[in-house]
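Below sits my pick:
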Amino acid sequence: MDTGEPAIETFDITKHFGDLEAVQSVNIEIDRGEVFGLLGPNGAGKTTLVNMLVGLVEPTRGTANVLGKDIKKEYREVHASIGLAPTENNFDREFDVFDNLKHHAGYFGFDRNERKRRAERYLKKFDLWDKRKEKPFSLSSGMKKKLLIARAMVTDPEILILDEPTAALDVETRNMIHQMILDLAKEGLTIILTTHYIREAQKLCERVAIMNEGQIIADDSPKNLIKTGKHDRLKIKLNKKIKNIPNKLEEISEQARLDGNNQLEIKAKDANKLAPKAIKTLLRKNIEINSIEIEESNLEDIFSELT
């Protein structure tokens, strides 16, 4: 039930590993039912932050509340409310698919019948029931990822954390996992997704925090992040080579340059708005235009600017 209280709130949470400050005084607030993305390059601190939230790593200083409970003082309650699908396939090699889920449910105190019921429910939900007698490491990469998510869901958590859920997957399998995440979001789960795939965050997340060198350097919806740092590219293919860019064109654009293929590339906040002015300027100078292409800014551009 939504009490208006955030799903997760951190308070200057920090983690040192020796001299390395892996996470530096992070303050974020994640709403209940939100799909929240932690975006950053490898080594940015995403996994360390997640591991502190679920109790696998103890903060050096600072803390966090999960569903109103302190991660240090009320560890057991916090741990029970979060389902974590880690990056690595850390299944028990001795057990088949079915037993892996049953044993995971057992860690949370469910009796034998309830463990079986839950394992069956989630294997069927994620189309793994036919694989229940197989060993996890014999499964395809996509099925292993689905099994990690099924295992995370077997306790019916209120918060689902997916750490790099599509790392090293092919495009088709990645799209399948994306649809699974979108379907889970429709059920009202709070989902935290760590990724270094920028288009994945833009596709799946309502809000994104960009993390670099242990710090949160941006936090907003993908749309607002793109709007804030927006730099479209207007590419104009010319019929003939020109020596210099018209002065007027340099005045109305943020950056204009010529390449060796008779193409004029103009960087602007809004290329659609600039295009008519640029065309008019070129035609007045008797510069003939062959074609025009507009590349709108995306989250990848913002990420590149910030990291």
